Amino acid sequence: MAPIDPHSFTDSAHLLTTHISLTLFFDFPSSTISSATLLSLPTPYIGPLTLDTRSLSISSVLDPLSLSPLPFSLSSPDPILGQSLSVSLSNQTQILILSKTSPSSSALQWLSPPQTFNKTHPFVYTQCQSIHARSIFPCQDTPAARVKYAAKLNIPRQLSAVMAARHVERRDPLPSEAQGVCDDSVWCGDDRVVEEFVMEQPIPPYLFAFAVGELGFREVGPRTRVYAEAVNEVLDAAAKEFAGTEEMIQVGEKLFGPYDWERFDLLVLPPSFPYGGMENPRMVFLTPTVIKGDSSGAQVVAHELAHSWTGNLITNKNNDHFWLNEGFTTYAERRIVEAVQGEDIAALNIGIGWRGLVEEMERFKDNVEFTKLKTNQAGVDPDDVYSQVPYEKGFQFLWRIERQIGRSAFDDFLKKYIATFKFQSIDTDMFLNFLKANVPGIENEIDLKLWTEGTGIPPDAMEPVSNIYSKIVSLANEFKLGRMPREDEVADWKGQEWELYLENLPKTVEASQVTALDARYHLSESKDYEVRVAFLQLAISARCRDYYGEVEKTLKEVGRMKYLRPLYTALVQGAGKEEEKVFARRVFTEACDCYHPIAQGVAEAILAKHA
């Protein structure tokens, strides 16, 4: 057996699925989904076919034409990969699998009514990246296996569904379509409705996504709606924050070629969503923390939009090459931001990224494998080593190539790269070969092996150059000498300027300095979580226990890992932190039910390591 992906049981000798047809019955009281998964292969196949599953109960595997059972076996569970489902085929092109999710499915978060904005209806949503689609339905859960799919979602009638796919119709259930997931009488209950979707372009399984709840929307552009829970304040704030989306799509098309996904809708999820955004095609998922009231949250949208070309059109073959998704997308995002918001804002963005990259070098100093672009993740949970390295070191690599050959030539190269590999999954060597073929001699100017396989930050990486960036960094340096910025110096600062300032302050400051800074600028109460969390990290490192109430409040009101990881780590890492460790454990115990399973796992790992 030769796996094609360190995070999948998929065998390189087996055929890859080309289409999946899903019939899903949502049971909110039990927090489970019963599903019929019809997998289609490109040609008839004889022999074993290995699929990925996690925490699924498999009731039967059938030949869909004869409905006769097919022999199958499940391996014992692997803590990272889940269980392999091996099915014996005898010249079939399709197999039908009946299964049911576990209430603890790693991809799904089930929210009870009190955990939602309106407090009246339940809510469920997915997060399948990196390797969680297998906890919803059996599949070859590797980006190497791109699939088209169709889905019928049977849900309570008072709710609605959205999906990262084209909506076909909302209609009454039909008795002939339950496929064995439940009795026809249950499928066709008066209180049930079917929402039907289709994805006609081949996508990697981690881009499978849906949300079901009490949803509303606002139109914000010719190909963009903003969806959220049906709460006017949330919908109006989101529509205002993302009003410039169409302009960004048009800038993206100028830079990278046609937008191939028809719609670019946005879904603002409840505060427990573990990421800033997830680039699900046609329907980007967003944390509500990006709604900042000053349109700066649009930068996260710019990043997810950029994925429409780099990540969704061209995908890393597996997680060892994750930088191909995220480094390219960070570069593309900053080009869009520069065109729409100006060079200074793009430079701030690069500067914040640079600080993040430097901090990741410290985080991985005892595990330098994960400071490389091309990594070896065998035996490693990708959620545990998720970091800014593929984003920011990947960005730095592409920026270095741009500086070498000039922006105009690099733009031509990017367009050709996207056109050549679209709807394919590739690895680092394929990219480097394409680069060398299209930019002859580049390997003599840039050490490509050092950049992709070397550890740390290469010597020809670069901090941004801009007046505003330099001014903020020098003000942060002056703080070390006891000087706080004057009000006239920060009068026009928004969240990004404060974030950059705070991230450049020394990690060890006096408690009195922290208190004085907050007394003047009220950073601990900032509505911008980037600013608040950066300040609270400073307060924790200075042992300012006066702020622990604000730390607790923040850890309990959001589930975004970008905030949970540094706050929990700051509390428990280092010597003499017994009081903080007890505090962190208590807060986690009280808050964890409101976190997505992925975020729960990350916080638990931090506490297990240090507390």
From TrEMBL:
Cofactor list: Zn(2+)
Matches recorded under Pfam families: Leuk-A4-hydro_C, Peptidase_M1, Peptidase_M1_N
Residues annotated as binding Zn(2+): 303, 307, 326
Classification via InterPro entries: Aminopeptidase_N-like_N, Aminopeptidase_N-like_N_sf, ARM-type_fold, LTA4H_cat, M1_LTA-4_hydro/amino_C_sf, M1_LTA4H, Peptidase_M1, Peptidase_M1_C
Active-site residues per Swiss-Prot or TrEMBL entry: 304 (proton acceptor), 391 (proton donor)
Subcellular location, principal: cytoplasm
GO biological process annotation, one example: proteolysis
Enzyme class, spelled out: hydrolase
UniProt keyword Ribosomal protein present: no
Protein name (Swiss-Prot/TrEMBL): Leucine aminopeptidase
Organism: Nicotiana tabacum (Common tobacco)
Gene name tied to this protein: LOC107814668
